[in-house]
Amino acid sequence: MASVLFDASRIPVPEPEGPETVGLLTRRITAALEAEFPDVWVVGEISNFNRHTSGHVFFTLKDDQASIRCVLWKSAAGRLAPDIGDGVEVEVRGHVSVFEKQGNYQIYVSSVRPRGLGPLEVAFRKLKERLEKEGLFAAAHKRPLPRFPRRVGIVTSPTGAAIRDMIQVMTGRWPAAEIVIAPARVQGEGAAAEIVRGIRNLNRLGGIDVMIVGRGGGSIEDLWLFNEEPVARAIYASAVPVISAVGHETDFSISDFVADVRAPTPSAAAEIAVPDRQDLGASLAAIEARLGRSVRYQLGRLKDQLSLFEMNRYFRFPQEMVLARVEAIDDFAQRFLSAARDADARRRLALERLAARLAEHAPRAAHQAAVAAVRMVALRLRAAQVTLLKHRWAAGVDRLAGRLGDLNPDRVLARGYSRTMLARTGRTLTRAADAVPGDILRTHLAQGALDSRVTGAEAPGTAGGSEGHVHSLTQQARPPRRKARPTDKNQGNLFE
């Protein structure tokens, strides 16, 4: 029975002596990528297709979310279809690594094929899509493999090269593991049923820690039984973790997606199933060395701390520490009392300020201030009313005086007009027909008046004749009865 003696993650590791170089870091990244992505199968559209003079092919594989650079070496570039180029959707297989000079990760492609769909490919995709919707490929169902398995079950042909390679790898890496083989045909009619029966028999046997299901390489027809639905469901229903090892690195099957772990080859599956005792021994030696360095490092730190403690004056004279604490307490008490007195003084001053502000806002003072303000507003309002009325009435009187001045007949007479009155009636004549020959007329001018006698009248529109003459009764104008007063600019004559 195996057990974990040390947990490397819990052992403190001292800091490295110095930084690592760019090349060393890049090589570590390269190793991590190649270990994590030893085989990839990617679909995308080709862009920036370039066939170099050396025979190598460089292009970018992209979709609507991302892009990645790809390299196809000359040895495999000769098998490219002639219609491969920019804008073609293809499937590529290869592994991910780093071009160290530029620090770019890229796919080193081993094969490229257009997205042509044959009958088997159509069936494969339909079954894959249906099982994926059912959740058979979900990561939540993937189980971790045991680190130190005691019994390893293998479902494959007992006569093939794959079983010999797996036994050789496992016995060389981990001889303590017991290998249990469930023989089954891996090609031909009825082979799928035997694979299913082998998986179920190993589950019934019990005590199996991990199981490998697979076979060596072949054509797509040879490997098709691992794309059968019964095989996929048997792997999914297995209580033992399953490693799928079908064909070569570039071959993918439904079993690979359902299994807990996919191995690119049967030999790789054997390496995944059991640990390497040499690597484990080296890891234990490295852990032991790290543990020793860590212990020595911690002991050195403790010794240094102890030396510092021994050299400390308080360690040699502990009474000084007590006296220092007493002095600190006394100082704190003094500062506390001073702070309390200052706080009390500040509170008293604040209360006095609040009392003064409260007195300013007392109801009686506020009432008196409001009454005074109302009285002042009333006086200002009365004065404003008087001023407004005076201005309004003065403006109205000025407008009326101006209008009356414009209607003053004296102003009309001053412009050369006259007013003629019939002496017998005293009415102003406006029509010639109102006067008869012999009537005495009085004509008022701007200065003085004239008296005349009517000798004839002329009807409106007549061109003029011998009649209609007016003879003056007096040759000198009569003096005006009253002297015209000059019109004041600000006060006009009131005339009725």
Note down, in words, how this protein is organized:
This protein is of the alpha/beta class and 496 residues long. Among the domains are: 8-122, Nucleic acid-binding proteins (OB fold (Dihydrolipoamide Acetyltransferase, E2P)), CATH 2.40.50; 128-275, 3-Layer(aba) Sandwich (Rossmann fold); 408-457 and 467-496, no CATH class. The chain contains 13 helices and 14 strands. It has helices at 22-36, 74-77, 119-134, 161-173, 191-205, 229-237, 254-258, 266-273, 277-311, 313-316, 318-360, 363-406, 409-414, and strands at residues 40-51, 57-62, 67-72, 89-99, 104-114, 151-156, 178-183, 210-215, 242-246, 261-263, 419-422, 440-444, 449-454, 470-472. It has a five-stranded mixed beta barrel. A five-stranded parallel sheet has the order 7-6-8-9-10. The chain has a four-stranded antiparallel sheet with strand order 11-12-13-14, with no helix packed on it. Helix 7 links the parallel strand 9 (242-246) and strand 10. The radius of gyration is 62 Å and the shape is elongated. Mean pLDDT is 82; it is low at 1-14 and 463-496.
In short:
The chain is 44% helix and 18% strand. It has helices spanning 22-36, 74-77, 119-134, 161-173, 191-205, 229-237, 254-258, 266-273, 277-311, 313-316, 318-360, 363-406, 409-414, and strands at residues 40-51, 57-62, 67-72, 89-99, 104-114, 151-156, 178-183, 210-215, 242-246, 261-263, 419-422, 440-444, 449-454, 470-472. Strand 2 (57-62) and strand 3 (67-72) form a beta hairpin.
